[in-house]
Amino acid sequence: MSEKKETKAPKKAKKEKKVEATQAELNIGMIGHVDHGKTSLTQTLTGKWTDTHSEELKRGISIRLGYADITFYKCAKCNEGTFYINKEICPICGKKAKKLRTVSFVDAPGHETLMATMLSGAALMHGAVLVIAANEKCPQPQTEEHLTALKIAGVKNLVVAQNKIDLVDKEEALKSMKAINDFLEKNRYKDVPIIPVAAHFGTNIDLLIETIEKSIPTPKFDLKKPLLMHCARSFDINKPGEKLEKLKGGVLGGSILQGKVKEGDNILISPGPNGKPIETTVVSVSCASGPIKEAHAGGLIAIGTLLDPVITQNDKMRGQVIGLPGKVSKPVTRLDLKVEQVERAVGTKSANIKTNETIVLTVGTMPAVGTVTKYANNSMTVALNNSVVVEKGQKIALSKREATRWRLVAFGIVQ
């Protein structure tokens, strides 16, 4: 007699909950002197190590601008509703936390030879976390220069992370905090919150998130204005040996200053890779968490195009201005500027720029080299080696060579 086998209906596979990608609301700079822990703090906040370039890993410093998005939450069940975290599920009570907002962090290199890269990143920042190590004298050279760059970029909302408090005792930590306060006041940044942290151990990260949420608000952007975007990175996303029919166009990454963009839009890229503006079509729009239907002014985004990926690989399009055809200012190779020198924390002015001197200008995210052809009564004319796109009244950082490096000495206002 054969044994009767009972068959069970196959279990229905559980549908995975699809999480929609969310564009960050704003860009927050992570700035400060080299080796003060900017990249480590970014990793603690976001879970991402932003130094991914082979040379960065080899040398142990940031060389390019690093980017990472994170969503902040608040747990209403813990600490009387004041527990701020970077995870949806609270690690203390295990309850689901309330979503606050998603932000993009821009990790700027702190080495003195990479100041031009930091300045291009400052053009994207809506607020910043200034990282200052408690075990070193304040200010260090790039601590001062980075804060000056913020002032030039018009960034007013600032939080200080006093890092490496695990390496000092209480007396040294308090002495460091006083020096930081004095430094900020001399630079006209008063009542800036200072949060002692130890990035490697996650110490006071909840307090840092809370302070960021309360001190760096999301700006009000004008989405009705025509698209205006600064390109900070560009890529070729094709794998080596990819078949011709599967090749994808170049990708442009950066931040929209005003307006919005969606798939199918025609865009103009200026001044163009050879000083000639080019038009292309947007084929995709995405942010750190995935594809989105439309991107707007706010956090970092990337747009896929029909451009030849050869001209977008290795950040070749960095500094380009992206907008709608007919709505972008024409490229220029000469600038007339009203110049203001920057004040140092010790109260001394920077060295003067002279006629016939070669200087480096940071125009938005575009670094440019130029020669001063005329300089009198704080008015300057500069002949540029490459084309740039500017608007009247725009502030431009000016650096001159001192010894073996380029030093930020002034800023110019486009006349």
From TrEMBL:
Record carries keyword Iron: no
Reactions listed under catalytic activity: GTP + H2O = GDP + phosphate + H(+)
One Gene Ontology cellular component annotation held by this UniProt entry: cytosol
Ranges for domain Tr-type G: 23-220
EC number of this enzyme: 3.6.5.3
Pfam families membership: eIF2_C, GTP_EFTU, GTP_EFTU_D2
Keyword Cell cycle: no
Keywords annotated in UniProt: GTP-binding, Hydrolase, Initiation factor, Magnesium, Metal-binding, Nucleotide-binding, Protein biosynthesis
GO biological process, one term: formation of translation preinitiation complex
MF terms (GO), sorted A to Z: GTP binding; GTPase activity; metal ion binding; translation initiation factor activity; tRNA binding
Protein family: Belongs to the TRAFAC class translation factor GTPase superfamily. Classic translation factor GTPase family. EIF2G subfamily.
Protein name according to UniProt: protein-synthesizing GTPase
